[in-house]
């Protein structure tokens, strides 16, 4: 029992992570850390003390597990006795056709239904799977390299839009960054779930303000007067009212405080008078959806892509440290409480890209009929 | 390339996005490289979107004039 429970060191190897699920893939001895973020014990398992049951996972092969452990392996209990939904790992919602074919081939073998479900975080889920089939199902999927995802208190599979690869609005290759995050950080244990998403542009389809950590593409416009013919197209292209064209000459002036860094002016300009300046990621932290959504805080602008990993690592380090002994708490709650501490911690990491006047995350009240719950001023550090 | 005498004309006043762009694109496909197309489009959405799309197709916008609430674009076919 102990070894299942205290899978406490960092769960970087996939087989290890799934071993926590107790169901499949054996329990590899190689707990090789790819990253050196220190991960503490799983508060949830320890605190909740869910009942453990001995079950026959395969014929003649009994093992002890509990439901919380199954969730950590991407197996989600259903209403129906002994049946589970198996969540697959589909980072960025990009599913190579070979994997898709394998999923379509395998699902009817183990699912009692004739469909898959697409989760709100872009992953394919196979419902109505009996727990005795877990091992065989994941073995079959592995033949096409398809992995099972993870739930519970850990870094989840990251989500992303198509980014700049083929979306005309995209500014940053967020698919590439998403795959990188999935490879390096998926499955790291935290106090609670930790969701990362990426949007390629300020339209922010992937709602980076509602994520524990979000990255959104942004480009600063720079104007070259010599190339400008005063055609006024930029003034029409700007949806934010940041650009005004002189009534006589047509030359633009920009009110940068209104700019969202979407690059519409750059794309519209016929003479390339508007050019790309700094390009990078807007960083948001501490958001969530759910019963009581929290609007995440914007903490950095134009963060270079190659600094993204360092920011993720430091944020998780802060979260796991400040979350010690706090049980199941989202990073947004800790941030509301210890905002100044976080700002002091993260500023050196963000450097020149840090936003000067960032504000702590705030609740976004959606149940307007409800009174008495909303802490208007959450407990704030002294 | 002749700015004064465009090889073709399209009056797309009252034509909405993206039909105005599609018509422009189809007309350009009929034309020869280096020839100039004159297009008249509305202010608002069309002027915000059509030049951007033409540019993304690789053509060159050589002149933009504002004429009584409309825009006159001269587009040189590239490629």
SS strand fraction of chain A: 15-25%
SS-derived structural category of chain B: alpha+beta
Uncertain parts of chain A: 1-49
CATH superfamily of the largest domain in chain A: Sulfite Reductase Hemoprotein, domain 1
Number of helices of chain A: 12
| Structure annotation, total helices of chain B | 2
CATH topology of the largest domain in chain A: Sulfite Reductase Hemoprotein, domain 1
How far the N terminus sits from the C terminus of chain A, by CA atoms, comes to 42 Å
Give the low-confidence spans of chain B: none
Secondary-structure arrangement, i.e. CATH architecture of chain B: 2-Layer Sandwich
Lateral strand order in the biggest sheet of chain B: 1-2-4-3
- Could you give the order of strands across the largest sheet of chain A? 7-8-9-12-14
Q: How many distinct beta strands of chain A?
A: 15
Offer a quick outline of the entry.
The complex is a heterodimer of chains A (382) and B (79). With 382 residues, chain A is of the alpha+beta class. Chain A has helices at residues 2-5, 14-20, 43-48, 67-72, 97-110, 134-142, 174-185, 233-237, 264-268, 308-322, 331-337, 339-350; strands at residues 53-58, 61-65, 75-77, 83-87, 117-118, 124-130, 159-160, 196-199, 213-223, 243-245, 252-254, 274-285, 294-295, 297-303, 362-363.
Task: Outline the secondary-structure elements.
The complex is a heterodimer of chains A (382) and B (79).
Chain A: H1 2-5, H2 14-20, H3 43-48, E1 53-58, E2 61-65, H4 67-72, E3 75-77, E4 83-87, H5 97-110, E5 117-118, E6 124-130, H6 134-142, E7 159-160, H7 174-185, E8 196-199, E9 213-223, H8 233-237, E10 243-245, E11 252-254, H9 264-268, E12 274-285, E13 294-295, E14 297-303, H10 308-322, H11 331-337, H12 339-350, E15 362-363
Parallel strand pairs in A: 7-8, 8-9
Antiparallel strand pairs in A: 1-2, 3-4, 4-6, 5-6, 9-12, 10-11, 12-14, 13-15
Helix pairs in contact in A: 10-12
Chain B: E1 8-11, H1 19-30, E2 36-42, H2 45-56, E3 60-67, E4 70-76
Parallel strand pairs in B: 1-2
Antiparallel strand pairs in B: 2-4, 3-4
Helix pairs in contact in B: 1-2
């Amino acid at each position: 029992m102990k070894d299942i429970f205290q899978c406490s060191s960092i769960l970087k190897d996939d087989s290890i992570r799934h071993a926590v699920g107790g169901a499949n893939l054996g329990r590899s001895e190689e707990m090789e850390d790819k990253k050196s973020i220190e991960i503490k014990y799983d508060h949830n398992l320890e605190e909740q003390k869910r009942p453990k049951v001995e079950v026959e996972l395969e014929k003649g092969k009994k093992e002890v597990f509990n439901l919380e452990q199954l969730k950590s392996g991407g197996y989600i209990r259903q209403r129906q006795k002994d049946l589970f939904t198996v969540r697959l790992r589909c980072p960025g919602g990009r599913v190579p056709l070979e994997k898709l074919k394998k999923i379509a081939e395998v699902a009817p073998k183990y699912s009692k239904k004739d469909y898959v479900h697409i989760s709100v975080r872009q992953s394919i889920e196979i419902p109505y799977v009996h727990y005795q089939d877990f091992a065989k199902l994941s073995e079959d999927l592995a033949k096409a390299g398809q992995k099972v995802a993870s739930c519970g208190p850990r870094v989840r599979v990251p989500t992303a839009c198509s980014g700049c690869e083929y979306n005309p609005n995209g500014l940053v290759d967020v698919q590439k960054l998403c795959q990188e995050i999935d490879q390096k950080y998926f499955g790291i244990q935290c106090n609670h779930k930790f969701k990362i998403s990426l949007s390629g542009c300020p339209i922010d389809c992937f709602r980076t303000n509602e994520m524990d950590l979000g990255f959104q593409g942004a480009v600063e416009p720079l104007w070259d007067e010599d190339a400008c013919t005063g055609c006024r197209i930029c003034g029409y292209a700007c949806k934010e009212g940041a650009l005004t064209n002189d009534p006589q000459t047509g030359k633009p002036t920009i009110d940068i405080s209104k700019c969202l860094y979407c690059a519409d002016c750059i794309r519209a300009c016929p003479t390339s008078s508007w050019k790309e300046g700094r390009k990078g990621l807007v960083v948001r932290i501490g958001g969530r959806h759910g019963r009581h959504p929290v609007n995440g805080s914007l903490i950095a602008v134009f963060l270079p892509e190659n600094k993204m990993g360092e920011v993720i690592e430091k944020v998780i380090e802060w979260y796991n440290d400040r979350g010690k002994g706090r049980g199941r708490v989202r990073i947004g709650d800790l941030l509301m409480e210890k905002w100044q501490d976080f700002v002091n911690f993260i500023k050196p990491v963000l450097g020149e890209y840090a936003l000067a006047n960032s504000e702590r995350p705030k609740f976004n009240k959606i149940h307007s009929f409800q009174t008495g719950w909303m802490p208007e001023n959450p407990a704030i550090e002294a | 390339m002749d700015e004064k005498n465009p090889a073709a004309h399209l009056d797309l006043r009252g034509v909405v996005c993206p039909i105005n762009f599609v018509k422009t694109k189809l007309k350009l496909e009929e034309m020869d490289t280096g020839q100039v197309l004159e297009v008249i489009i509305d202010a608002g959405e069309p002027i915000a979107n059509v030049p951007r799309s033409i540019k993304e197709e690789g053509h060159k916008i050589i002149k933009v004039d504002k004429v009584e609430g409309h825009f006159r674009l001269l587009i040189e076919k590239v490629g």
